[in-house]
Amino acid sequence: MAKTNFQYEKRQKELEKKKKAEEKARRKLEAKNNPKPADGSEGDEPEADDAADADDADPAAEGDAPVQPQ
Fold this sequence. Notes:
The protein is mainly alpha-helical. Helices cover 54% and strands 0% of the residues. The mean pLDDT is 76.
């Protein structure tokens, strides 16, 4: 039966920890350089505005509905 190479496994765990730490540091730096809006939304514009714009849209502007003369 082959012996388990514990040093290899330990090194792989260390590399994984290092990779995770670098990723976390990168995310932290990005968050510092590009802070999120105060309302907590992740996008550039809040999603609530998108829904409000759809309600205010002119039905004649939509391509699906035929425009009827008045």
